Amino acid sequence: MIETPNQSWNLREWLAFASVWGAAVLVTVTFCWLLGDIIWHGLSHISWTFLTAPPENAGRRGGIGPILVSTGLILGVCLAVSLPLGVGTAVLLAEFTSDTNLFGRLTRRSLDVLAGVPSIVFGLFGNAFFCKTLGLGFSILSGGLTLACMVLPILIRSTEEGFRAVPDNYRLSAAALGLSRTATLVHLLLPAAVPGLLVGLVLGVGRAIAETAALIFTSGYVDRMPESLLDSGRALSIHIFDLSMNVSGGDANAYASALVLVIMLLIINGTASWLATHSLHRKIVTV
Amino acid sequence: MTPLEPITVSHLHHPAGDRFGRCERQPFVEVDQLSLHYRGKPAFQDVTLSINKGCITALVGPSGCGKTSFLTCLNRLTDLIAGCRVSGRITIETLDVLAPGLDVIQLRRRIGMIFQKPNPFPLSIRKNLEFPLREHGVRDRRQIAQTIEATLRDVGLWEEVKDRLDSPALALSGGQQQRLCIARSLALAPEVLLMDEPCSALDPLSSGVVEDLIVSLRGRYTILIVTHNLAQARRIADDAAFFWVQNGVGRLIEAGIAKQIFEEPHDPLTAAYVSGMRG
Amino acid sequence: MTSSNSNTSSRWATDHLLSWFLWGTAMMAGTIALLIMVFLVLEALPALQHIGLVRFFTDSSWHPAEGLYNLAPMLWGTLFAMAGSVLIATPLGILSAIFCHYYAPPALAGPYRRLIELLAGIPSVVYGFWGLVVLVPLIGEVHPPGPSLLAGILILTIMILPTIALMADASLAHVPQHYLRGAAALGLPRWAMIRRVVFPAAKSGLFTGVILETGRAIGETMAILMVCGNVVQTPSSLFDPVRTLTANIALEMAYALGDHRAALFVSGLVLMAMIVALIVSAEWISRGRIYD
């Protein structure tokens, strides 16, 4: 057997081995600590009553019923606006403009910038534009519209990827059969691009539901049951923030709310990765 | 443009005696001084060719001489390619194919195209035939069902798939897929069929079946077929056109009756190619 | 035939309608970024006119009630928190990705990757909450008061770690397999192979990951607001409480009026400027690297 001539090799290899495993263990431990802590303190407070009852005494007692409703409504507004906008833009970018088209390039660049805008800046913009200029005030509508602007880049990017994954020969043979662009889109491209669209949708929902900073001064703090989209409504993430920062003795309910939020996100992310692998599988079968 | 006949079953259903129709050497498609430039660079230039009605015209020549590009000019698929410019003149009967305001959708209904790789849509066998028909305005369910059966019989697929019309088309074998694609084109009752090496992606057995199918379509459709298989071209073609690359640009060297092109070509290049010396 | 013709024209109309709809949506989506910039500038304009850009960096302190608008301490807060977290998260994240690809037994690599993906999905307010109830008291025991730059850096590190780890993971996956086989055939040991072959091949992806995590660190609001103590001062040690630009907006926007409100929009503009500078420098550097 040949001895390794270079002693420093051995030392370096050993150090690398130790730090790689060290990093992995550190990350795992931190994660388990965080999640364990939230489950440990939150689980005992979660019950059907907690999920449905209104908050009492500034949230120290009672549940999160109206808050879940507000969160759902904000999300609904966000999707109702961002879905048609996002899919339309993605179709235009992927199917109706070439890569060198000036408008397409400008739009893409603008969306890249939008993806990098910090959420607090979205909050500032939402406050100035939706609440003040459009006169919607602190409302679920303002919050949802602000979130719609925020999730648009994610939605567009993955929908566009869905369209680009559709093989070109479908387009060619559809054109050779004299099918209109609308028919080609509706019957062939859209069904084939659905997996990408769904992944984008789920990721967008995940981002929207986790968002806090953009909502503080657009959808507001009011924790009553909202009566219309023009009412202020408190999102779950803002509830957690408020309980932990501004309400002394609110930790128990904050833990429970955090656990509810984390569970929702785990479900959403699980769905996204299931969809991604599922659609990948479908692609292999098709080819 | 010439008004179109509505798609009817009678259009497809031919008496058995007509199955092996004959080519009548009556010009149907006239191509005059056709050139195609891609991003300023010529792909082929100055092609003048007359294609006879009901005949099988084989386009032969080495790779890269512009045969496939030539086919895509005829149904204006070139419109889909950015940076592609076509000049010259193509007329089908009285229709000016390259006219700017032409309804390309109707044009492509009159001119079917079969690609090298079978490309059925990721739908069921039935839907593959039904959905283009519906898009072209055929709504009557009975008529659709009849057309589907008639075209599948035409391509010899009916007996093989009649019990599983709703299973995915992509589950068929390569040869079956290609015949389905031909059926999909025939369902729209085209007058011209463009075939871009329709057999080259198939195994020899399926290739033979598809070849027999093409021969059976003679007389009813005007067929242009690009092929690299000279033996096949000899077997099936009535007319032939020989393309060659000169200075990086595709050119039509010689065209005429297939027998003459293959057995006593006028041009020495053609002679060398068909005897297997060059290309 | 009339039926055939009317059919055609209605189809053309549908195509036209669709195309107008698509252009409309894309137009709207494309102008949002512009709209954001326009509104930031419009709202910030009064402050820029009354106070002037220079005073945002030369005033004696941040006391909007008394007309003092110095943003510098908060700018430092943002920069320190960003630098600290990027310095820790980058090596940890890259090592994590290397673990997944080259060190972990196959049975461990998959779950570990899923774990990182889960970390990426946890909302910032939950990180902040955990930092507030667990991390801050721990730091408080070592060195009071507890809410501090250090707490901010640690929480930010945990938050941006998944970004760099996932980007690094993706770019390592794109390193061509034959490079690795070639290196293995030369008898290079694992780390030498990673250092000599994998890093150079994956560097542009790793670089993009660093840019993305830096952007996240600059823009993060809630988590850092919850653990940093929010005292307006330029920190002199890791244990000093600080306030970042983002936290400042979130804290004061609710009651700010007039010039004060406009001043908060100025800090929003400063944040945007930092993000744009980051994107531009990233492109500038990567353009240089493509040709080397």
How would you characterize this protein structure?
Chain A folds into two domains: 39 residues; 239 residues, MetI-like (MetI-like fold). Chain A starts with 6 loop residues before the first helix and ends with a helix. The C terminus of chain A is likely disordered. Chain A is globular. Chain A is an all-alpha fold and 287 residues long. Chain B is 34% helix and 25% strand. Chain B is built from eleven helices and ten strands. Chain B has a six-stranded mixed sheet with strand order 6-7-8-3-9-10, sandwiched between helices. Chain B has a four-stranded antiparallel sheet with strand order 2-1-4-5, covered by helices on one side. In chain B, α5 crosses α7. The N terminus of chain B is likely disordered. A two-stranded antiparallel sheet of chain C has the order 1-2. In chain C, β1 and β2 form a beta hairpin.
What characteristics describe this protein?
heterotrimer; A: 287 residues; mainly alpha; MetI-like fold; 2 domains; two-stranded antiparallel sheet; 11 helices; C: 292 residues; two-stranded antiparallel ribbon; 1% strand; disordered N terminus
Quick description:
The complex is a heterotrimer of chains A (287), B (279) and C (292). Chain A is 76% helix and 1% strand.
